[in-house]
Amino acid sequence: MPLALPASSARSILRRVIGAGLRAADPASALLKCVHRAGHRLQVGHRRYDLRFFDRVVVVGAGKASVRMAQALERVLGPYLDGGLIVVKTGHRLPTKRVTVIEAGHPIPDRAGLEAAKQLCARAAELGPRDLLIVLLSGGASSLIPAPVDGVSLADKQKLTQLLLRSGAAIQEVNAVRKHLSTIKGGRLAEATRARIVTLILSDVIGDELTAIGSGPTTPDPSTYREAIAIMKRRRIWMKAPASIRRHLERGDRGDVSETPKPGAARFRRVQHEIIGNNEMTLVAAAQAAQRAGLRTVLFSTPLVGEAAQAGKTFASLAARLSEGNGIVRRPYCLVAGGETTVTVTGRGTGGRAQEFAVAAAGEISGLHKTWVAAIGTDGTDGPTDVAGAVVSGSTLDQAKRNGLNLRRALTQHNAYPALRALKSHIVTGPTGTNVNDLYLLLAL
Ligand SMILES: Nc1ncnc2c1ncn2[C@@H]1O[C@H](COP(=O)(O)OP(=O)(O)O)[C@@H](O)[C@H]1O
Ligand SMILES: O=C(O)[C@@H](CO)OP(=O)(O)O
User: Fold this and answer.
1) How far is residue 398's CA from residue 408's CA, in Å, rounded to a whole number?
2) What is the domain range of residue 86?
């Protein structure tokens, strides 16, 4: 995978560590570890299926990593696969043999996604009890297959998505709302088909909650209309949301429209869910690569979450603490952490959570020699930008000042992108084909 990193003495180490982390998260390899076939016998995790029993085996799916998963599944199933369709983010297409790939908008849903979602639902709905539906799910699915309930338009959903994503809400909150406005999310896809279902999931939600990843189209949903309304009010977007959306959620709360299927519902007995990989794959491989590079390596078991700038500051502050000699890790070292932060976006700036994390970290490590912090989104696109993240060093703040760049303002205006670009601090990977949250590194040589 080509990595364009800014020049620095740490360049080759960062390249190796990040490269190893991204390679380890390859969705195809992850799927091949979980799904095996010998003749007509299919093994998925601990479950076995006799493919002779099924009239048809169809795959549907959505998410940034779904195309690599589909490629691997085609290899495993060979002639047993009757085709299907998956939806990926525009620009993430890769060649497939039997599975149709549709590109659609992310993070804001678009018309292509709406049409794709219709096709996907129709494909699932035509299947019967003697068919097997394999669902490939990864982060991004919620936006890629919008299926708004009656009375809510695509434009309304686009507006709501914009509001939710900028509100600082955690993904569980965002998706609790989305699940109550959809005919596909929150277990509705499972309800719409009579086929046996196997859902293979590459998780981009810390904690791997099935109901949160891609809004759990084949998972029962414990959340309620009432909670969705409370979340929107707490995040101060209720009054800004389109009237059609408020109306639908209020009707749901009164019991005038049906709730999403709840845990315990009989339908889900014929659904198998398998998490094929998550953030940890990347972290472990990155840590191993750092060790191989001769660095003392610490892998954080606690994910970094919360506001990106705060998380960046806290993570980077460890460098100063360790350099004062208070710590137990001596140079050269590499701290490896994962997680997924959020940004409460105000204004019209351009950036993403990894870039914001890096800018905040730059302030914290300023003046420390041979010290770097890198933050990257494993999918290769940080926020609505064309970069994966950024790397900053102990001299980044000075360099910014010399160039007349105000990093503090870049943070308050959520405008990290232009500053990092001017500083040549961006990490560019292009679409990586995977999506397992973020990777954060603190490197001191
Ligand atoms: N100007 C900005 N500065 C910082 N973060 C932003 C900005 N604009 C959007 N974001 C963040 O980008 C996130 C969406 O980015 P994306 O990388 O696509 O997320 P995901 O990987 O979860 O799909 C939003 O949650 C929002 O917080
Ligand atoms: O699809 C989704 O619901 C989320 C979480 O899985 O992914 P993303 O944040 O990438 O849109």
Assistant:
1) 13
2) 22-278
Q: Which tokens sit at 82?
A: 């009757």
- What ipTM describes this predicted complex? 0.95
pLDDT for the residue 2: 43
Per-residue pLDDT at 3 exceeds 70 = no
Q: Which residues line ligand 2 (CB under 6 A)?
A: 107, 139-143, 171, 175, 204-205, 213-215
Give 321-346 pLDDT, tens digit per residue.
887 766 678 899 999 999 989 999 99
- Looking at the fold, whether 305 and 160 belong to one and the same domain comes out as no
What pLDDT is attached to residue 11? 85
Q: How distant, in Å, are the alpha carbons of 107, 127, 193, 218, 270 from that of 133?
A: 26, 8, 9, 11, 11
Which of 228, 253, 278 is a domain's end point? 278
Domain CATH code at residue 390 = 3.40.1480.10
Report the alpha-carbon distance of residue 279 to residue 204 in Å, rounded.
7
Pocket test for ligand 1, best of 172, 342, 353, 435 (most atoms within 8 A of CB): 353
Residues 388 and 376 in one domain: yes
- For residue 64, the domain's CATH number is 3.40.50.10180
Using the 8-state DSSP alphabet, how is residue 163 labeled? H
Tell me, yes or no, whether 257 and 132 share the same domain. yes
Spatial CB neighbours of 290, under 8 Å, sequence gap ≥ 6: 13, 17, 297, 334, 336, 441
Phi, psi of 388 (to 5 degrees): -85, -25
Band the pLDDT of 1: cuts 50, 70, 90. very low
Centre of ligand 1 from the C-alpha of residue 352, in Å: 5
pLDDT of 431 above 50: yes
Residue 249 included in any domain: yes
Question: Which atom of ligand 2 sits closest to the CA of residue 340?
Answer: 9
Q: Which of 278, 293, 327 is the last residue of a domain?
A: 278
Q: Do 267 and 289 share a domain, yes or no?
A: no
pLDDT over 50 (residue 7): no
- Predicted confidence at residue 327, as pLDDT, reads 66
